[in-house]
UniProtKB/TrEMBL annotation:
The lineage of its organism: Bacteria, Pseudomonadati, Pseudomonadota, Alphaproteobacteria, Hyphomicrobiales. Residues 12-419 form the Peptidase S9A N-terminal domain. It comes from Rhizobium herbae. Its EC number is 3.4.21.83. This is Oligopeptidase B. The keyword Membrane does not apply. It comes from the Bacteria. Belongs to the peptidase S9A family. GO terms for molecular function: serine-type endopeptidase activity.
């Protein structure tokens, strides 16, 4: 019996069959028409969306509003709770760089950050950029950050005002606060200053939203006159540009999900041609950080599956000159690294927990910054300067608010700079965080992080929000999240399943959840639900599953595989039309995604493998749980038509009584609303769905 009562008739998408034959296999797609033919242009101007498609999306939104109308008060309550846990006039601890220290702050009621600087050792705060002012009057606005020039005279900042992730770059005179005439369109959002502060480098996105070219812009000249520095002709690779901490090099970073290539442009000759470090070799990953006369290289070369750190002379960076510095240790995944004048620092993860390692570059002595909680999260931000003994890191757990520390690498002293304030109050002792292991189908142990109130009954009656992602090697941290306290305070168990496809247990954990082993991701999530049910943390009748993007694919897969084990499913910007998307090489992310999922255009094996699990292709007649799908009209990563097609097919096929709902944000893309409180409204909506489905309103 559904808890959704008196619903109006649900929208019915008309069927317009389109057939496609690949590898001798013919498929029919009844809802392919929801993909706008002019999607490239529509991302830049949403008003040109086909009227029939717009009408259907708006009908879906109206149906969703009717189904969720009785949660309006709950949504407002949840929003107020979440907002009450955020310090509205919060300010970051400024990062020192030369004569200044740079930071951000918010004002009460403000949605966007404001960037400032002070004299290095404190003093009057100078406003550099007011995000709220720049966003005024825009339905969507996301800042790409502010990067100051080496001489501190100018700032390079970017914004996206459609949600399509086409960023516009502007140059600001930091003395006057005024923008200069330079306007650089269709960029990837970042840039790298030349040391003299008179020019910068940036990436341009092509019509298919891929970063394909890097240009050098001299301030005061038109964008049309910018010099092309590098062009990447392979659509399967992402590309970015950045600068070294010592300002000696401009880095050009080219990569897909398994292969890397770096080019270097010495800043001593900005008109020169970039120099290749090591040519791309399928499966070889590496990244650089400068350490004076050497580069430190984080790489999986020589079979170092969990990565090692090597070094090479700055003037001889090619592969044959790389030598080991931090050897490979199986099971210890090195995540990132940075170098300073006297120390080498890296963040690693072992047994599912992170730690920071520090090596004295002169003596070779190493030590760790480690912590005692059962599950926690670390963030390593390093420092803004090369010649320093002090780095910065953050620590939190599911119960412990974020703490920001300065750490002296010589004296090993920690200085607490800031503890995250929860204005409405937070008593750590009211909550429990645990790390449990769920046995998978093949004997693997899946880590699951839990958060719940101490007074929550663990007899199977508690509702549970079970979150998962499981792709691209991304690990979901066990960090402090004030929002999920609203669920815990209502008797929920909040759970994160650290499933295969992420690197939570090392690189092998990632490999075991991709390509031909992708099904392990889905089975691990179901195993987590099984374990929570068996151990009476919750029960199948009380589990609401949640995932977004590639985690949305997970949601579609588990809904097809084990719908009876979930009371509800929340799928945010869900990558559910996997096969059709991977067959469409005009889409922004398709060619770079082939190393993650396979190329069904060239490979029948990859085609059949995707066809076997692609959520949209495997919807069938069965009783599905209540489902909420969320999309963004201008999303270039998971296009709006994926959830739209999926929902249309689910509604056609389900034999159950629970509603299939879809909410399309007509003013945003992949990340949803851009303002900090606007985003809370979306989370409050999702949580209200979970609470309603769980019968806890």
């Amino acid at each position: 019996m559904s808890i959704f009562k008196n619903l109006p008739p649900a929208p019915v998408a008309p069927k317009k069959p389109v057939t496609d034959t690949r590898h001798g296999i013919t498929r029919t797609d009844d809802y392919a028409w929801l993909r706008a033919d002019n999607w490239q242009a529509m991302f830049k101007d949403p008003t040109i969306l086909d009227p029939e498609i717009r009408t259907h999306l708006e009908a879906e939104n109206a149906y969703m509003k009717a189904a969720m109308a009785d949660t309006d008060g709950l949504q407002k309550t949840l929003f107020a709770e979440m907002k009450g846990r955020i310090k509205e006039d919060d300010s970051s601890v400024p990062v020192k760089d030369g004569p200044f220290a740079y930071g951000t702050f918010y004002v009460t009621g403000g949605e966007q950050p404001r960037f400032f600087r002070t004299p290095r050792d404190g003093g009057e705060r100078t406003l550099l950029l007011d995000g709220d002012k720049e966003a005024d009057g825009k339905a969507y606005f996301r800042l790409g950050g502010v990067d100051h020039s080496t001489d501190h005279s100018r700032g390079l900042w970017s914004y996206d005002d459609k949600g399509s992730e086409y960023y516009t770059l502007r140059v600001r005179d930091l003395a006057t606060g005024e923008d200069m005439a330079d306007i650089i369109e269709n960029t990837g959002g970042g840039g790298a200053w030349a040391p003299d502060g008179k020019s910068f480098f940036y990436t341009v996105l092509d019509d298919n939203h891929r970063p394909s070219k890097i240009f050098h812009h001299i301030i005061g000249t038109p964008q049309a006159d910018d010099r092309l520095v590098y062009e990447e002709e392979d659509p399967g690779f992402f590309m970015g540009v950045g600068g070294s901490m010592l300002d000696d090099f401009i880095y050009i970073d080219i990569h897909d999900h398994e292969t890397s290539e770096y080019w270097l442009l010495p800043t001593s000759d900005l008109t020169g041609k970039p120099q290749l470090v090591s040519a791309r070799e399928t499966g070889l990953e590496y990244s650089l950080t400068e350490g004076g006369d050497v580069f430190y290289i984080l790489t999986n070369a020589d079979g170092a599956k969990d990565f090692k750190i090597m070094q090479t002379p700055v003037d001889k960076p090619s592969r044959e000159n790389w030598t080991d510095v931090v050897p490979h240790t199986p099971g210890r995944l090195i995540i990132s690294h940075m170098a300073f004048a006297r120390h080498l620092v890296w963040l690693e993860r072992e047994n599912g927990l992170p730690q920071i390692k520090i090596r004295d570059r002169r003596s070779g002595e190493e030590h760790s910054i480690a912590f005692a909680e059962e599950a926690y999260s670390l963030g390593l931000s390093g420092a803004g300067e090369y010649d320093t003994d002090v780095i910065r890191f953050s620590y939190s757990s599911m119960t412990t608010p974020s703490q920001l520390y300065d750490y002296n690498m010589v004296t090993r002293e920690r200085t607490l700079l800031k503890t995250q304030e929860v204005p409405s109050g937070h008593n750590i002792d009211d909550y429990v965080t645990r790390r449990v292991m769920a046995p998978a189908w093949d004997g693997a142990e899946v880590p699951v992080t839990l958060l719940y109130r101490k007074d929550t009954p663990l007899d199977g009656s508690a509702p549970c929000l079970l979150y998962g992602y499981g792709a691209y090697g991304i690990s979901i941290p066990a960090s402090f999240n004030t929002n999920c306290l609203s669920l815990a305070d209502r008797g929920f168990v909040y759970a994160i399943a650290h499933i295969r496809g992420g690197k939570d247990k090392g690189f092998a954990w990632y490999e075991d959840g991709k390509m031909e082993k992708k099904a392990n991701t889905f089975k691990d999530f179901i195993a987590a639900a099984d374990y929570l049910n068996q151990q009476k943390f919750t029960s199948y009748a009380n589990i609401i599953a949640e995932g977004g993007s590639a985690g949305g694919m997970l949601m579609g897969a588990i809904a097809n595989m084990a719908p009876e084990k979930f009371k509800g499913v929340i799928a945010a910007v869900p990558f559910v039309d996997v096969l059709n998307t991977m067959l469409d090489d005009t889409l922004p992310l398709t060619p770079p995604e082939w190393p993650e999922w396979g190329n069904p255009i060239d490979s029948r094996e990859a085609y059949e493998r995707m066809a076997a699990y692609s959520p949209y292709d495997n919807v069938s007649e069965k009783p599905y749980p209540a489902i909420l799908a969320l999309g963004g009209l201008t999303d270039p990563r998971v296009t709006y038509w994926e959830p739209a097609k999926w929902v249309a097919k689910l509604r056609e096929k389900t034999t159950g009584n629970e509603p299939i709902l879809m909410k399309t944000n007509m003013d945003a893309g992949h990340g949803g609303a851009s303002g900090r409180f606007q985003r809370l409204e979306e989370i409050a909506f999702e949580y209200a769905f979970a609470i309603k489905v769980a019968g806890k309103m």
